[in-house]
Each structure stands twice: as C-alpha cells, then as structure tokens.
Amino acid sequence: MSKPIVNALLFQLGWLACVLGGGPWLWLVLPILAVHLLWTASWAAEGKLLLSVFLAGSALDSFLLNLGVFDFGEPRTLIPLWLALLWLLLATTLNHCLAWTAQPWWRGSLLGAVGGPLSYYAGAQLAGVGLPYGTWPTLALLALLWALVMPVLHGFAKLYRSQYQQSLKARRSG
C-alpha cells in the first residue's frame, strides 16, 4: 500500500478516535504520529510543521469558541484536547496525502471550503458539539475560513520543507 494511502487511512482512524472516542481513545494519536514520523525525511522540519499547525489551529478554534461558534456543553475558553489533536493529525497530511492540494493554491482553498465545514459538521454531530449560530451560518463561516486556512497551512509546510532542503545543501557543501 502506498504511503499517501496509509497516511490518509491513519488520519481517518485518528479523526474517528478523537471525535467518537474522546478521552479513552486519544492514545491512538501517539502511534499514528510515531508511524508518520518514521516515514518523514526530517523529524525537525516535520516537527516544526506539526507544532505550528497544532498551535495555529488550536488558537483559531479557541477564538471561534470564544466568539460563540461552538458550544461544548460547558463553559470553557480553550477547545478540548480531542479537537486540538485533530489539528495535529491534519498536519500529518499536508506533505503526504494532501500534498496535491498545495499547488495551485486554489486546490487547497477549494478543499478547505468544502472539506473543512463538512468535517466540522460531522464532528459536531458525532461529538455532540452545539452550533449556536445555526448550522448553515456556521458552515458558511467555516467555508470562508477554511478557504484561507488550507493555503496558509500549505505555506507552513513549504517553509519548513525549504528550510530542510537548505540545511541539506549546507551539510553537503560544508
């Protein structure tokens, strides 16, 4: 089986573990990340990408939470761990099964505008997350945001990939 297919399957397994299982199944994210990192050329570059996407995505979703877009059934200012881990899992796909969406930029925007809201909607339904502004206004907002988010995430991936390639060139010439 090809690495992009395995990458996509591992992402889906992690998504289901986070959304359906929550706390008791979050441990599955660790072996998924381990397999992913074993296949990467540079742990440093991939690690920077994973951390950047995790932090930026968690900040974005926490901002949306504080705007009242999501209701987790209890007062909170930060998103739950299971949702933050989804950002980490998404980061594992950028240089692999979703690499085709990096160029031209509109592919990422199109995938983000369609796939982002659908993923949030499915996750909200399965995990019991409320959408206080209503389903359609929330999906429209998420479509606009994700049309911007995916190209930005691919920008992170490109930046760390080029830093890794530059460090390889420096090592070879020095």
From TrEMBL:
The keyword Membrane applies. InterPro entries: DUF2878. The chain crosses the membrane at residues 12-37, 79-98, 110-133, 139-160. Keywords: Membrane, Transmembrane, Transmembrane helix. This is DUF2878 domain-containing protein.
